[in-house]
Amino acid sequence: MRILFSVVIFLLNYVNTSGNSSGSIPEFVVQVYGVLLLLLGVAELGPPPGLPTRNSERMEETTREITQSISSSLSPALAETSRWISATYVSLTPATHVLVVINEEIVFSLGDGVAKNEEALGACLEALRDSTGNRIALPGGHPGVRVFPEGARNCVLVQGFRRGCLLVGSGDVLKEYGKGDLRWLGVLAKSLEAEFGDEK
After folding, report:
1. CA–CA separation, 183 and 120 (whole Å)
2. b/e string for 24-55 if b means 16 or more Cβ within 10 A?
3. What does the pLDDT look like over 3-16, one tens digit per residue?
4. What tens digit of pLDDT does each residue of 121-163 get?
């Protein structure tokens, strides 16, 4: 938008100087403001190439190898579905870790440093059972956050579905997630529920 305004200013300057009217704006002032608007417009387009941005750093982080763990009880098809859902959510949201829990057992995990912690998992599931909705965010002091490593405990989401839940950990705070990110978590949980059906 500012680029457009700067072009308009340069055109008006041309008209102003070609008309030779006595009450005209000094040409120097018009040119300075035109150049400033042009520079501001270019700056709005984005940082110069090569400068790191939050998104480029996020892209580098998600393209590296991330540890995953798959339960031997999962069929290859269900393991692939869990992998796809988890990797997609980690790639496109502030999430860094995703656990798929079926029948109170972690059957799939994506993210570094996830250790088996039955007590923390039980606390997550209990908090979900006690809630009125199907999605909760655990506060930092809740024992359930210990299901994730230290760097992924700032925001722990628990999204329930019929036979289990998705646990999502992140080093970012809840407000970093958009409404669409949270809604999408519910959609992914429903697709997992449909995929798992009656099998494990």
Report:
1. 25
2. eeeeeebeebbeebbeebeeeeeeeeeeeeee
3. 665 566 666 666 66
4. 999 999 999 998 899 999 888 999 999 999 999 999 999 998 8
Answer whether 59's CB lies under 8 Å from 134's CB: no
User: Smallest Cα–Cα separation from 109: which of 120, 97, 118, 121?
Assistant: 97
Report the run of H or E that residue 108 belongs to, with start and end: strand 105-110
> Looking at beta carbons, which pairs linking 52-57 to residues 24 or more positions away fall under 8 Å?
none
Looking at the chain, how many residues does it have?
Answer: 200
**CA-based nearest residue to 99, from 69, 125, 120:** 69
How many whole angstroms separate alpha carbon 24 and alpha carbon 125? Answer: 74
CA 82/CA 108 separation, integer angstroms: 7
- The answer to pTM > 0.85 is no
**How far apart are the C-alpha atoms of 184 and 89, rounded to whole Å?**
9
Task: Give the DSSP letter of residue 88.
Answer: H
Indicate the helix (H) or strand (E) that contains 102: strand 97-102
